[in-house]
Amino acid sequence: MMHRRGGKRIRMDDPVPPEYETPMTPMTPMNDNSGGDANDSYNAYTPYQASQTPLHNPTPEHYSSESYSSPGTSQQQYQEQGNFDNQTQFEAPMTPAASNMRITRNTRARMRGGVVQQPKYKEIDTDYTPSSSSRGRGGGRGRGKRAHHSHSLEDEASLYYVIRNNRSSLTTIVDDWIEKYKSNRENALLMLMQFFINASGCKGRITSEMQLTMEHVAIIRKMTEEFDEESGEYPLIMTGQQWKKFRANFCEFVQILVRQCQYSIIYDQFLMDNVISLLTGLSDSQVRAFRHTATLAAMKLMTALVDVALTVSINLDNTQRQYEAERQKAREKRAADRLESLMAKRKELEENMDEIKNMLTYMFKSVFVHRYRDTLPEIRAICMAEIGVWMKKFHQNFLDDSYLKYIGWTLHDKVGEVRLKCLQALQPLYASEELKTKLELFTSKEILTDKDCEHVYELVYSSHRAVAQAAGEFLNERLFRPENEAVVDVKTRRGKKRLPNTPFIRDLVLFFIESELHEHGAYLVDSLIETNQMMKDWECMTDLLLEEAGPDEEALDNQKETSLIELMVCCIKQAATGEAPVGRGPTRKILSVKEIKQVHDDKQKLTEHFIQTLPLLLDKYRADPEKLANLLAIPQYFDLDIYTKSRQEINLDSLLSKIQAIVEKMHDNDVLDTAAKTLEHMCVEGHAIFTRCNVARSTLIDSIVNKYKEAIDEYRNLIEGDEEPDEDEIFNVVQSLKKVSIFYSCHNMNPWGIWDSLYKDIEDAKDPAKSLPSTAVKYCISACFFAILWGQNHLMEAVDSGSHGEDECRQLKERLHSFMGSMRHFVNSDTPSPPILREDAYNTICDLLVIFCNQLSTHTNPLMHQLVYEPDQAMQNMLNRFIQEYVFFEEEDDEHDEHSKIEELHKRRNFLAGYCKLIVYNMIPTKAAADVFKHYVKYYNDYGDIIKTTLGKARDINKTNCALTMQQSLNILYNEIVAEKGKVNRNSEEFTAIKELAKRFALSFGLDAVKNREAITALHRAGVLFAITPPDGIEQDPTGPPPNLPFLEILSEFTNKLLKLDKRVVLNFLDRRLQAGMPSSRGEDWQPLLLYRNSLLHGETDQVPVTSKRAYTRRKKDHLAEEEEADEPDEGSDHEFAGLPVNKVVITRGPRTNTFYENNDTVQMQTSPSAIVEDTATSPLQDLDSRFKALQTQSSRPRRNQEHVEHRELRRTSRNSGRYVEGQYMESDSE
């Protein structure tokens, strides 16, 4: 039992020590405050004084109760709880840095003699990054190289080289070193010191002369000056397998060294004195690499010494026992020489133990106490990890409040990794029954309040799965701990004994209700299902629902029953699938073999149970939609073969009849939807129960269709007779159509032949006099949509089986086109339609365009090619108008409550996603996104993620087209200002907003200017043309600026994305176009032109450099084809925007790859060289095109006569798909 001292108890709610607000600087010494008297101040430079430690006192003398007190306060005895609220305990141990700090070589010989005067050591507040004074700034490192790890000049015999490269086992390395130490200990010590220096990443070398003549402080200063690495990297923090292995070897080497030297060398007053002195000095260095490496070595050295101390302690106990046994013998049987040898051995072991304890005490005070609150989190984490090891192994010495307080303080660390090390240090101590009692001083005030527990309970709903499961384990300990008396003699009304988990499930339901997160039952289940077996106790759950409460228990109310059913279904789903809820864990987790077997076993057990109980549950709650919606989902997780294996056909028939009765009577959407999906799951061909289920399904659909026909016939007869249908008749039509729509989505109802009737209802909706209610028409649209999908699916299956269905294909095509025509009618803003129909028709069009896109033209059967449906320009414009009206509008703040606003936003986001999907999948041209991109900044909070993704996908399709779409977006916004204001004010908010959008567009191109070269050039050309070309119908003043000239200021946002070479080309193009109208004076109206020209001239001269006369070079044959291909424009490149009247060859393509300004599947190609020359000669873009191509050809090879030009070239090849790589352009580095 640990000696109880009178010091204060550690409390976790104590004020945090001040250093955690502002951590101590690396060089700040401080008082340990855990030992000695008030004047006993230790710092890193205090001589190593091996003071004696009493053998049998488990508490070191330095930590006695007489001297243990809180820093900065007088000693106080332990008081009751109430006294702790009014005092500050365990403040941060701080001692001002001594003005005359000295470093000494801490040998005991020196220590026992006089004090050697040493030079002062400068204190520095921040991590020091040294640089060589002789090098100046230097040239930096080449790519892929690490200057300080160039091993060409390394000593291959050094310990660092051998250990880093794993040249032999660590034990062999240590044994060899010990042999060298025995023959020449000075040289061996030098090797060891050099190892610690090199392991810090320092290339400096310690010579024999330095070792003999210089103190450690001077050696460390010398090494600091030679530490010339500027990157800040050193072995302990470097990445890669080699350095990971080195870190492990480094720690192991220190421990093996001490273990192999434990019987003699560590007590020779030379090795350990020098090593401890060196590591102490290095650990207090301002160089982070020295400090980190030395602290790790010192902590591992202490851990190794703790192991030695345990060995010595065991030997001492054995020797003491032998001595006492010998002394107990009778005088005549007692061996005097043996008693004498045992006494000598005991004395030697006691001295060794004292020596080790003194080493540990000194290193703790001179290294640990300073470094446990280092500015570097990794160093603090090392200290906490190792003190935990010491407490576990050598608890007699370390497991008391004078050491535990450091863990207590560091639990408040700002860095999570450091706090985690503290907890990991405490965990094994609490796990040990023997050690747990010694933590009383540390834990007595660590009692969690209910409020504290609630904070942990809430984490079961965290999206981070590991955190949630840890909180689940905490919940198990607090709320679901077994109590034997809880279920003793508790029985149901009919006498059935309640199962042991009954009270826990009741508590779980109550916890779920009180948490008020009723939509997140799956998250709660996932947090508990792997650690609490009650989550799969199906019998206990169903007993609570089916059995009536007995006299000694409380019955579940309606809310508790609903919550229990929801949790039970969540448990069933996760047990049967092994999948975590959406948003928790990986989206596609691959189950292990063990997990697959567990899922299979769980699925069998739950199927066997619910086959019998589910019909009873459905019968009991047949009138409660909320409960039925959950219960009806259970068969989706059954192992359906068990119905036949266990002869449960009667229960199957019962279940099917219950489902049919529920569908016929219920009108709740969730109930009907779940019932339809469950029937779909049960009616899978191949199962033994398929025939029974299919008959039941057909019977149910017959009933649904007949009710619809009856209701619609009655409704139409009333309309034709000019009568007004009453509420019941309208209700019957709407509800029957709802069931038809829902079941059509899961089951092919085409054989029932109701298309004509459904489509007639849609056509009638165009006439307000004949129209059904909007909700009913919406169900008709949904049913017809799925009818078309089932038709396509059936046609594909028929084609795959080898049969032909020309008639079926023709009928499907007619239905598709007529249905799309009706949907266009509803969406078109020219015809007034109810908003609910416009929205549903819009979604339907977007979905059908995706399903019947041009990818069908690649299908193996030609019949599918006929079903391709592509949107014409009118449809594209209609869809664009819809999103402008329904998505991009300013809503009134007080129009709806918060929940309604969220739902409306979600709906609008779906509208936008449907339109963007058509662009992303290249079903409509990229230019159709211009009206979407223009809202990028204005509606960033609501739709920014969708527009950004669309922008990225459009760039993947064709970079040039995407860039020109951005340009078109800016043009649209600019024209809107002109139309509204007449003249553009460059200081207005609207103009500033366009510049902000241009800046955001420019950022989206990234840093690779070469990759986006063609796109950026095309954007600038189009922008310049827009700026200098007057709008149609406006005559330009020949002496004045072009009307759109302010647009150049917007265009300048993209200038920094141009390569230097391209800036000159664009500038030349700009000057050529504006040469006739350049102003003689620099008026305000011409400022955008000057701004744009200056941005192009940034860092350049105003003169375009003269190019080499030689326009070609000899090339290797294998590059010829690539360079010829590089001269041809890409599909969809900026050539299609040049406005050139070129001849065309129409080439039929498969899926569209580029459709920016084309509405058909064609690609334009130039056919005649003469045509090219003729067209470009008269084109206003002649300069840009010709100069661009000339420069491509000119620079195909380095100019040998210009030595000052760096020989780096860029070449386009077929292998890099149009990207520029080394070999074509010179002087093309991006700025």
TrEMBL record:
Superkingdom of the source species: Eukaryota
Q: Where is the composition biased (Low complexity)?
A: 60-76
Write down the Pfam families for this protein, in alphabetical order. HEAT_SCC3-SA, SCD, STAG
List the InterPro entries: ARM-type_fold (IPR016024), Cohesin_Scc3/SA (IPR039662), HEAT_SCC3-SA (IPR056396), SCD (IPR020839), STAG (IPR013721)
Acidic residues: which segments have biased composition?
Answer: 1121-1131
Q: Which residues form the SCD domain?
A: 368-459
Compositional bias (Basic and acidic residues):
1200-1212
**Gene Ontology CC terms:** chromatin; cohesin complex; nucleus
Q: Keywords, A to Z? A: Coiled coil
Compositionally biased residues, Polar residues: 31-56
Identify the stretch(es) annotated as Disordered.
1-81, 113-151, 1103-1144, 1190-1231
According to its UniProt entry, the protein's GO biological process terms are: sister chromatid cohesion
Basic residues bias: start-end ranges? 138-150
Coiled-coil residue spans: 313-359
Q: What are the GO MF terms of this UniProt record?
A: chromatin binding
The entry's family comment says: Belongs to the SCC3 family.
User: What protein name is recorded for this chain?
Assistant: Cohesin subunit SA-1
